């Protein structure tokens, strides 16, 4: 029931275009806290295990068509620039089997995790999805991008390079 209410709030926020902070949200410029992540397509990890290299976190759900629409471009971005930064996905689904069915359709190779308890969703500020968070090598949130994007377009790749201070 709690997850259904949160999902309804996500949908309403997306429709209204409004933005509200989630409980414990780390804003742009803030540093992400250490957080356990339950593995979905990879073993469980701590978020801090990704420090030392820039990170792109994509927050998605199986019931979100725009989330599926952008997965192909995230996969291509990950394959092409994976030596310069990591890409991970965070599902906010209640049911791992639904998330796995989504990933079967999406055909991604980067690691995905599932957030049953809303901890990552709240910390990242996922009041609308898809949400993609650019995080520097020290764990600082550089930028939050709401809505589906073409992540491997030349303009977006250039913007990512500038955000991370990388030559792409």
UniProtKB/TrEMBL annotation:
A GO MF term: disulfide oxidoreductase activity
Pfam families recorded: Redoxin
InterPro entries found in the cross-reference section: Redoxin (IPR013740), Thioredoxin-like_sf (IPR036249), Thioredoxin_CS (IPR017937), Thioredoxin_domain (IPR013766), Thioredoxin_ResA/DsbE_sf (IPR050553)
GO biological process: cytochrome complex assembly
GO cellular component annotations of the record: cell envelope
Leader peptide range in chain numbering: 1-21
Cell compartments where the protein resides: Cell envelope
Superkingdom of the organism of origin: Bacteria
Record's keyword terms, sorted: Cytochrome c-type biogenesis, Disulfide bond, Isomerase, Redox-active center, Signal
The keyword Thylakoid is assigned to this record: no
Keyword Disulfide bond included in the entry's annotation: yes
Gene3D superfamilies linked to this entry: Glutaredoxin
Domain Thioredoxin: 26-165
Protein name: Thiol-disulfide isomerase or thioredoxin
